[in-house]
Amino acid sequence: MIEGLEPGTLAFLALAGFAAGFIDAVVGGGGLVQLPALLVGLPGATPVQLLATNKLGSICGTSVSSVTYFRRIRPDLRTAVPLALAAFVGSAAGAALAFLISKEAFNPIILVVLVAVGAYTLLKPSMGQLQALRFGHARRRHLGTAVIIGLVVGAYDGALGPGTGSFFVFALVSALGYGFLEASAKAKIANLATNLAALVVFVPQGAVIWSVGLLLGAGNVLGGYLGARVAVARGSRFVRVVFVVIVLAFILKIGWDTWRQFTG
């Protein structure tokens, strides 16, 4: 048993890790489940500890789902590699900025992200069903756009994180015209890079709560493996309902905590 945590809290975090890994592999945005779960389960932790521990759990799941996607989808590495390298650089820079985020600002920021990405998920139920690549005859422009996506979304992931997979998928679909599965495969490779870059910054600073992170990681591995297989076999529509329900639940919880923070 992890010292200081009740069995109920451990079960809650393990379940959150599984749900995050599964959802992240299918539609992206597993951090919208996992990071709020850490906020609820570890109320005494600092923002940097929460972010760093979240990254440890997430990288376990993204590693498994990335390999599964690569083996089954075979994404075009000519775009995926530059995207991932730019995401690594952006995430490392963002992680350095994470130490400046105060505890008082953390809940409101997470709440805004939850509402924004939850609304986006509701409003975009058929995103990426068909692939129609943009800049097909302008390879440099295509790669340049991918690099910009990697830097911007990577920086966000390093500094905060929730919804990164969804943002990668959204950007690849809307800006470059990829279909959902191809975008998801590239997003997983880029997300693996952002998680690794953030940990390169966080681990030397002693910010990771290893016992909790590894518990989340175990759940992420199982969820990521199952989620990637389901995504390839069945698509993502049925998961969206579960995803929205979970996000709404955390909006209510974090929203209530934020309300008490400013009124209590």
Automatic annotation (TrEMBL):
One of the record's GO cellular component terms: plasma membrane
Localization in the cell: Cell membrane
Membrane association type: Multi-pass membrane protein
UniProt keyword annotations, A-Z: Cell membrane, Membrane, Transmembrane, Transmembrane helix, Transport
Transmembrane parts of this sequence: 12-33, 80-99, 105-123, 143-161, 167-184, 196-218, 238-256
InterPro entries according to UniProt: TM_pro_TauE-like (IPR002781), TSUP (IPR052017)
The keyword Transmembrane helix is assigned to this record: yes
Cited PANTHER family: MEMBRANE TRANSPORTER PROTEIN YFCA-RELATED (PTHR30269:SF0), TRANSMEMBRANE PROTEIN YFCA (PTHR30269)
Family membership: Belongs to the 4-toluene sulfonate uptake permease (TSUP) (TC 2.A.102) family.
Descriptive protein name: Probable membrane transporter protein
